[in-house]
Write a structure and sequence with these properties.
The chain has 266 residues and is α/β, with parallel strands linked by helices. The chain has seven helices and ten strands. The protein has a single domain (3-262), classed as Aminopeptidase, CATH 3.40.630. The longest helix is centred in the last third of the chain and has 20 residues, at 243-262.
């Protein structure tokens, strides 16, 4: 059994399934009542266009390279890191109530000790009545020292979708933007989420993960969902002058995959 809680709130306990189903239903109703419209390839203010701000990505990298999100979860720097990443989700639907940060605890299993940590989860409501009950997850490692570029790309993707939402542009399917902790520890954050998902597992149509990630550990954690896994690798751009431009390349590549999947074409 696994429970989720916000970083500052109480355990959900037995009310968790009700809260989760309530969020799912509320999000679908909200998407249907906002007048949001689905978008085609020209509808979004896409990531590769002028809305991109390299300076913002550079700020993210400067913050993340200090290693705050990879510190022990009882470290003050870790709380600062969680708060920073969660703040980049502003404008999207928080996973639980008003919090993007979801605290989890997994009890020991056999020789595996208990694990605790925090995931950052946010939702972009789908606008197509026939497809918005289906979910696409885009995710990155929250705590890996070597994965700060992937996490920066994920944050910029989140900000882009938040910007799109202010103009009424929304994907056909619902998207979850997720930063999972414990990816270097048998993907414990992802495993915790899948034990009590915020969206029905049988409605999850794809998982887009921004590398680096151990593919075997990821596939093992995903179980049946490994069949719908897409991994976007960070490939240095020959024309990139710094890491921020490489992050831009990765986020653009991931967005192209997301756009196709969220449109319901696959």
């Amino acid at each position: 059994m696994c429970d989720f809680r916000t970083t500052s709130g109480p355990d959900l306990g037995g009310s968790a399934p009700i809260a989760i189903l309530g969020l799912w239903a509320a999000l679908l109703v909200w998407a249907g009542c906002t007048g949001a419209q689905t978008t085609d390839d020209t509808g979004y203010a896409r990531l590769a266009q002028s809305a991109w701000q390299i300076s913002r990505i550079q700020e993210d990298l400067t913050f993340l390279q200090v290693g705050r999100t990879s510190a022990p979860d009882d470290n003050a720097g870790y709380a600062d890191g969680i708060a920073y990443v969660a703040a980049q989700m502003d404008g999207l639907q928080p996973a639980l109530a008003t919090s993007y940060a979801v605290r989890y605890h997994m009890p020991p299993e056999g020789d595996t000790p208990a694990k605790t940590g925090s995931n950052i989860l946010a939702l972009v409501a789908g606008a197509d009545p026939a497809l918005r009950s289906e979910l696409i997850i885009v995710a990155a490692d929250l705590g890996g020292i070597e994965s700060h570029q992937s996490l920066a790309a994920l944050m910029e993707i989140a900000r882009s979708y938040a910007s799109d939402a202010t103009r009424g542009y929304m994907p056909s399917r619902t998207i979850m933007v997720a930063a999972f902790s414990g990816c270097a520890d048998a993907c414990s954050g992802l495993r915790a989420y899948l034990r009590m998902p915020l969206w029905p597992a049988d409605k999850t149509r794809a998982v887009v993960f921004l590398a680096p990630i151990d593919p075997a550990a990821l596939a093992d954690a995903l179980g049946p969902l490994a069949e719908v896994l897409h991994v976007v690798e960070l490939q240095p751009d020959a024309g990139a002058e710094d890491q921020a431009q490489e992050v831009l390349w990765m986020a653009t590549a991931a967005d192209q995959v997301l756009r196709r999947l969220a449109a319901g074409s696959e």
